[in-house]
Amino acid sequence: MKIQKLIGFILSCCLLLSACGEKEIGFKPVNPNATPEAKQLLSFLYEIKGKYTLTGQHNFASDLQRYDNVVHEMTDLYPVVWGADFSFFAMGENQAKFQHCGPMNLSSPFGPTVENGLSKETLRQGIVDEAIKKHAEGRIITLMWHCCYPINGDECNGDDIWRLTDRLPSWEEWNELVTDGTELNTLWKIQMDGIAKYLKQLSDAKVPVLWRPFHEMNGVWFWWCNKPGEDGFKKLYIAMYDYFTNHHKLNNLIWVWDTNAPRNKPGDEAGPYKDFYPGTDYVDILSADVYGAWEQSHHDDLLALAAGKPISLGEVGTIPTDSVYQVQPEWAWFMVWGYCIYDFRRAATLPPPPAEGNGEATPPPPRRDFSNIPNVNPTAKATYENPRSITLDKIDFSGKTYKLKKIDK
What we know:
The chain is an alpha/beta fold. The chain has 11 helices and 14 strands.
């Protein structure tokens, strides 16, 4: 009898430890049908959580390797996270105003605004093809979408996305957008269908994707921004999740909710994270875009809301330094936005370009002309060489699973 009790006690302890182990891992994709590849990537992110930060770099659809190559020239290393944008075609006479975000039909924003003459299909297929190649190298893929308002499809004036003056859509129009069967909702689904077919290719190729739709929703600049509360952004995000997951069966997506770092700048505000959070059932990873000071609250408030889920830096305007790592250790990855990898402080000291044509002095180039900026950024080199930073050479992707090579601290 005593032996039976002892055996029962041991079995109970084993079950308890097993349950505790599952809780400690803390990882369960919000999509119950997530692919093995998506599950493994999410598990990997939990494994490095609080210990390491993956390096990352955004590249634009018109030049998908440019800024990875800039990073390599600066650091002799490559980032792990490769980012791109399904984007839009910038139409109208003010194209240059929006070149900074990399519209598909324009040249990358390091020189004059020039149309590249490529079709939407060619450019988006290029993103997919490049993502498959990068994944085979052991890279982690993150994708986003600067999308026009649904009534305009994928071609619009950038002001259709950046609603800085009219602050549309109205709540009435918003409710129509998120209500199944309405004309506006139908147009939005057609627009989403155009993206889903490319994500489906990645699913077929067994490429998991960190999918971060409708970024910076707590700001006041995009059409999907500034709609807090239960009837606001939350409904839009959940509607996309439902359409991509249940209708299109895109089970390779890891759902990243990507906010802007909150701020109180008049006319350029970004509200509290919690007012726009879709909820733990729809978010795998919480993320923030940081352009400006590295305030501790940006990290701590997001970490508290995450309740154990990973947090990351969806976009950054300056690369995090060791001092940031020390006080904000939970960032799972950072992704520098394209040209922001350049050292703008150094660029500001450059002389104007030489005189041309009639011999008159040529004015300094505009901010978005980066052709004269040297590929030297001491901060980038220091961060990439930081023991906490994970670069591509530290990834073991044998067996098509993400693991860390043995790292000597």
